[in-house]
Design a protein that fits this description.
The complex is a heterodimer of chains A (359) and B (297). Chain A is an alpha+beta fold and 359 residues long. Helices cover 46% and strands 19% of the residues of chain A. In chain A, helix 6 crosses helix 7. Chain A is elongated and about 195 Å long. The termini of chain A are far apart. Classes of the chains: A alpha+beta (359), B alpha+beta (297).
Chain lengths: 359, 297
């Protein structure tokens, strides 16, 4: 390169030096970029994830190797390979409000005031509000959710499509619709009373088993963990009639429990009364026996004396008795009768006086 | 020289990459592709992987999402066999069965859904017209023909969808059953009447039950009291009987017994406030007459 050594061209030389330096720098940059590019093939699968590696669009590996478990992995960098992550261990859920009525517009916050009533028309226009038909041809609103996990990641990721904005909930469209389908089928064979109050659990189980059956048949790759009834309501148009039934039922149980209370009280009282009657009977019997036996004892004693001298003992007894009895006399009154005889009138005091006080 | 060789290498690499991009393409898992030569479909690719082709404008590649698409069918009125007006909404799952045919006849998934929508509409109404309302909604689960209806719709739509559009219909399900607006109003009237009847029944049941419970309680109370009275009488009678044994003692001297009894009665009687009129002959008041002598025996 004779031009380089030409001293008449210092500008060219300077340029040449600068180029040579930048080429060297560029080379190192390229090596670094290449290294970084190769390292970008390293990826980490999270603890609740599984991943597929697509090499040129095709799942890499054979058999169980196709699914990459949690840990550190390496594959070819983009665009040769692509990593698709599936959240297998996470419980996901989908909610459906297909069969729910219109929600009330949020009332303006006024303290203490009741929320304004829903504007309810006399009928439901199709498509405007959702409902299911019950077995007895009534209308029912309900709101449900399903919880699921992914048990076949390959089917889940590559067999079903999601129409929503993000493609990361691939099976959701079909799951949501299958849930609706199961709800329609299940409620169609229960009465509205069963679905609203008496047999909610059976309806829920019917929805869950119907859904599980269909999901297995379709091969969506998910396992149903549970179906939840979030809310259930009769149509707003007739909700007052339903509330009346509840009120009537409460009234019924109130009446019955009041009657039960009366019954318990009555029986307790009757038992108390009965116990009292029996106790009185027993008291009477005891008294009668003890009195008579005391009389008999007394008689036996008196009789012993009496047989010895009937007249004296008889008189003595009589006098004693009269003395005891007449001790309570307050006023003595003696009046002669027509034959000049006295008639003795005694007035016995109202209140008995003690013997000592009598004059 | 090094600088030049580096330039050459970079340039070559870029050229190779450009060429590769023109002649290679990938089909991703869950996709199908159709390769056309001058616009004419030449081959369909259904397995994922790396494939070669002639560069544009000779060959072109069309990619289609081959995962199951879910289509929301029409929600409109139809008549059942027994002349009931109902509104049934169905959904269907479909995927591309024949990519070449799909490209030629349909072209895009959106168009496919429009075409399928028409098919679903026809067959849905035809199938539902063969069943009665009670086979959709019934408290007897055995009378419900849901699965049969869905199966029949699917077997009707499937061959036509396959033949006309290259689409495989995978499943059909009923998602909504509704009633026309005017009928909902009648249903509400009936529901209200049913509820009122039920409320009335509960009220009268409560009344009746309460009366029954009270009556039972009253009768039980009467029984208890009657038994207690009888028991009490029996106990009293037993007491009387036991007491009667002691009366035997009085038989030794009935006269004395009677005398003592009289004394007792007199004493008892005079305990109450009372006025007694006695003859002055009565002992010991005969003394008041002035008799001092001892009574003669």
């Amino acid at each position: 390169m004779p031009e380089r050594s030409t001293p008449q061209n210092p500008g060219y030389e300077a340029l040449s030096d600068a180029l040579s330096v930048s080429f060297r720098v560029l080379r190192w940059v390229m090596v670094l970029l290449l290294a970084a590019y190769l390292l970008s093939g390293i990826f980490i699968v999270g603890q609740n994830e599984n991943a597929f590696v697509l090499v040129f669009g095709k799942i890499a590996g054979l058999g169980a190797d196709r699914v990459k478990g949690p840990g550190l992995h390496w594959t070819f960098p983009r665009p040769i390979a692509e990593v698709v992550r599936i959240p297998v261990a996470r419980v996901q859920s989908v909610e459906t409000t297909t069969f729910w009525h219109k929600e009330a517009p949020k009332p303006p916050t006024m303290p203490g005031g009741p929320p304004p009533p829903l504007p309810v028309g006399p009928s439901i226009r199709p498509g405007e509000e959702g409902y299911t038909l019950t077995g007895d041809a009534n209308l029912l609103h309900s709101k449900w959710a399903v919880r699921y996990t992914i048990d076949d990641p390959e089917a889940y990721a590559f067999h079903f499509r999601y129409n929503g904005p993000a493609d990361d909930r691939v099976g959701e469209d079909v799951i949501a619709r299958e849930l609706d389908h199961a709800i329609v089928m299940a409620t169609a064979r229960f009465t509205i009373d069963q679905a609203l109050r008496t047999d909610i659990e059976a309806v829920r189980e019917a929805v869950a088993s119907e859904l599980q059956k269909r999901m297995e048949a379709l091969g969506v790759g998910v396992k149903i963990e549970g179906v939840d009834l979030l809310d259930v309501s009769p149509p707003l148009q007739v909700i007052d009639a339903f509330n009346q039934v509840v009120a009537a039922e409460n009234e019924r149980s109130e009446k019955i429990s009041a009657a039960r209370g009366y019954a318990a009280r009555t029986l307790n009282e009757a038992q108390g009364q009965a116990a009292k009657l029996i106790a009185e009977g027993q008291t009477y019997a005891q008294r009668v026996v003890s009195e008579v036996s005391a009389d008999a004892d007394y008689f036996n004693k008196v009789c012993e004396q009496y047989v010895k001298d009937p007249d004296v003992i008889g008189r003595t007894l009589l006098q004693d008795t009269l003395r005891r009895t007449l001790a309570n006399v307050e006023k003595d009154l003696v009046s002669p009768d027509s034959k000049g005889q006295f008639e003795l009138r005694l007035q016995i005091s109202r209140e008995q006086k003690k013997i000592g006080e009598t004059k | 020289m090094k600088r030049n060789s580096l330039l050459v290498i970079v340039g070559l690499l870029m050229a190779v990459l450009f060429v590769l991009l023109q002649v290679l393409f990938t089909v991703r898992e869950g996709e199908v592709a159709v390769v056309t030569t001058f616009g004419k479909p030449q081959r369909a690719i259904t397995a994922a992987g790396l494939y070669g082709r002639w560069p544009w404008p000779i060959q072109r590649v069309y990619h289609f999402d081959n995962r199951t698409h879910v289509l929301e069918g029409p929600f409109e009125e139809t008549l059942t066999k027994d002349g009931k007006n109902i509104i049934v909404g169905v959904y269907a799952g479909w995927r591309i069965a024949d990519p070449t045919q799909f490209l030629e006849r349909v072209g895009t998934p959106e168009q496919a859904e429009r075409d399928l929508d028409g098919l679903l509409r026809n067959y849905k109404n035809a199938v539902l017209g063969q069943y009665e309302f009670s086979s959709l909604v019934n408290v007897d689960p055995k009378a419900i023909r849901f699965e049969q209806i869905e199966q029949q719709m699917q077997t009707s739509v499937t061959p036509e969808a396959r033949a006309r559009y290259g689409v495989a219909l995978q499943f059909i399900g009923i998602r909504k059953i509704g009633l026309p607006e005017a009928i909902t109003e009648k249903v509400f009237q009936r529901m209200r009447a049913e509820r009122n009847q039920l409320a009335e029944r509960y009220r009268s049941e409560g009344e009746g039950e309460a009366i029954k419970i009270r009556a039972q309680a009253d009768s039980q109370r009467d029984q208890i009291l009657a038994k207690a009275e009888a028991d009490a009488k029996r106990i009293q009678a037993e007491g009387d009987a036991k007491a009667a044994q002691y009366y035997q003692a009085f038989e030794k001297d009935p006269q004395l017994a009677m005398f003592l009894r009289k004394l007792e009665v007199m004493e008892e009687t005079l305990k109450e406030k009372s006025t007694v009129v006695l003859s002055a002959e009565t002992e010991p008041f005969d003394l008041l007459r002035g008799d001092t002598a001892l009574p003669k025996k």
